[in-house]
Predict the structure of Transmembrane 9 superfamily member.
Amino acid sequence: MAVHRTLVVLAILSSCLAEKYKDGAKVEVYVNKVGPYFNPHETYHYYQLPVCRPQKIEHKSLSLGEVLDGDRMAKSLYDIRFKKNISPAQELCKTTLSEADLAQLKEAIEDLYYFEFVLDNIPVRGFLGHLEEGGFLPHNHKVQLWTNIHFNIQYNGDQIIYANISTKEHEPVNLDDAVAPFEIRFTYSVKWHPTKLKYSDRDKLVKGTSFFPKTLEIHWLSIINSLVLVFLLLGFVVIILTRVLKNDFARYNTDDEDGEELDNDDNGWKIIHTDVFRFPPCKSLFCAILGELTDCNDLQLFIALPVAGRLDRKMT
């Protein structure tokens, strides 16, 4: 029980510890993961792609919820300052792509890879590139890479409320005609927007804006079939128990003249009534094991909540 109380207290305290910034203070941006858009469970480290990276990669210490969510946060080269706009776009880095790098980027864009950054514990996502297909004969196929990221950040006072990114501020780079070695320039820009939303409302805002498609398919026929099966089984059990108990009660309510015969030929539910209410052997050990299993189940529930999205994974 002490472990449970500790987890609850930590979750409550972490929700109260909001990051506050001074004007011009650095806002750390962590790169996280990349993966195909239609399979969010398949993810890779962002730096596995041939993109801008620091000379020494520093990973962030992750919480339990972040580990269970498959996060792989590492520091980035983005230099974002609180309330400081960056316009026009500022250069992030220049890199030269080899033939293998170009092939890797093309394959990722064709698989509709998205990337995820984390800014002040807010996940921001965007697409790595743009795949343009059209026509049948002839078939048009263009693989384009977004090289600019624009950050839109909302703030209230000294706290960040919400953030998102867009990649369409600049024209993408066409990779179809790229020949190695191919030099490419990555840029970024930042726009700060004041808002009246409170920090306490930002969790609802973050969870309410989903990057992935929300598809809710309810198979009503399967649900109805399951319910009918359950009710039928319950009905059969009730009918069987009613008949058995009715016969037993009829036998036990006979005249006293047949009492001795009933005692000698008793085969009803009263035969097992002494066994049902009998203490099991080693009842203290049994109670201890049952209590420990209950504690383990509660701990599994606390671990499952961040995975299911019912508890903020950044707080656990």
Observations:
- The two ends are 17 Å apart (CA to CA).
- The chain has two domains: 24-208, 220-278.
